[in-house]
Fold this protein.
Amino acid sequence: MPNSRLKRSFPALFIIQLLGAASGNVFKNCLMFLIAYHVLTMAGVGNQALVAGTAAVFILPYFIFSGIGGELADKYPKNRLIIGLKLYEVACALLATAALLGKNLPLSLTAVFLLGTEAALFGPVKYSILPEIVPDERLLSANAHIESGTFIAILLGTITGGLLSSYRENAALYTGITLISLAIIGLITAFLIPYLSPAQPKLKIDYTLWRGIKESCQTAKKKPRIWLSVLLISWFWLIGSALLALLPVLGNSLFKASEAVVTIYMAIFCLGIGSGTALAQILCRRYDNYGLIPLGALLMGLSMVLLPFFCTPSAGAAILTPKEFFNQPDNLIFGLLLFFTALWGGLFTVPLYTILQRLSAREERSRVVAANNIINAVFMVLSALMLMAMEYAAISLKWQLLIFALLQIAVSLLAFYFLPSEFDLLLCRILAHLFYKIEVKGRENLPPNGPAVFISNHVTFIDWLFLAALAPTPPHFAMYKDYFFASRLLSYILRRAGAIPIAPTHEDKALLDNAFNEISMALKKGDIIGFFPEGKLTRDGNLNIFRTGIERIINRDPAPVYPFAITGLWGSIFSRHPGPYKPHFFRRRKIEITIGEPLMPDKFSAAALEEKVTDMLNEMHHEQLALT
């Protein structure tokens, strides 16, 4: 593919998905507002149930058609599928316009379902095409842009849908013009994406809906980490759809506020998610910080818990304008909490989408994305059913918010349980950069993943912190056995982080043999091992002789060895410096780290590794002298 056309592909995809998401949300939200404020009704059905039902109808196609969508995206050229889907969207926009003009609620819900079908079929194409049009090192950034764009589209669709619904008599005409215009622009933009060869052209499409759903889910279940990501993404959509469905009902029934107020709240929520995805992109610029997943989930739950306490019912019967409504401090605080709830949600979802794409094979990626969309749909429909059940059980709106908040906290604790090492790695990065000014040379030598062995000179008790902070995935460190018995807390932290207790042969040969067995298993799994070949801390700041244990590791499981050289830590409180310690109050201690090119197993020896680290330290020392 010519480079110029490749460069145009991502912007075109971004615009297409932005317009498509905006179109569906304009229509869905306009319809939800018209229902919530009793402009459109259905005999015998409450407005909260209808609002929740509208959201469920839009999501239901994800469950039904995502399996087939994944197979189509793997079998056919993705650019041609996008053009076909945009043509279909134009037809859906015409039907939606006719339904609104005729004030026909059943036909309007049919149009919602058809627009949801287009979105369900487009999802696997959108996420599986990304690794083909952007370099691997920009994949997380591209995901963050796509996620930000999606929520910008939801934001614009929410605001536009709310504003259009406020026109009442002319809402149908203005909404129809908007939908048709967005669909046509999206269709024109689709022709900018060049031809992309199909990932699996011989794949046989199974048009039996249930078998397609089952096959996609089985593909995602092959790797537990992918399946966990699917479940956590789906949970986020359950919470998000519940909050967005509750807002119009809260605005009309509890706050006694106009549609404009509800539109502002929904815009705040969508803006928060977009801000969260942008923040995730910044925090993941150098590393895939998967530790943001449990942290973001917990912060989201804590923000949600506070929401019910600032749901202040309106005292009067008159509908409040935005100016009147936001004069009350509780309503401003509610909006702020809503923003942070969404922000932490955006922070926790971006790394999950990256896991889906990084860990899935190209020939299966579309079906993995399809499985994600299917489970998303199941959870979002479950959200609508929960809201309907709560309305039937006469549970107050405040208690509904609190129930969802407590469930979110419970799920965040499960995320901490299943992703402990990822969170520990995030903490290492935060602590290392919080207390030390770190300058790194040779960062480009770092591998994207394991198996690999990281080694460094051993200056302090916390050298492992800096190796961990620079590792792309959570490493396992071989640590002296006495550390594991220093205290219960330290023992718990080390075992939780996957540290491996080790001791010299003369102290505990059985423990040493067991340590090498654990190291071997970790390398076979593709993990990173952190190892200090000196076997002890330096007592004079100079490098000790490298022992041959590192050779035993590489001979048993050949893996590249990455040498690190650390300067600036000798004399710190964590070193064995004999002189008095000079604390660095109110400023971070500067340390320098050089990462050398890896030593390959076929030419490896402890002596060669020691010589390499010695040369790196000498070079760093000469550079430091030259600067003074």
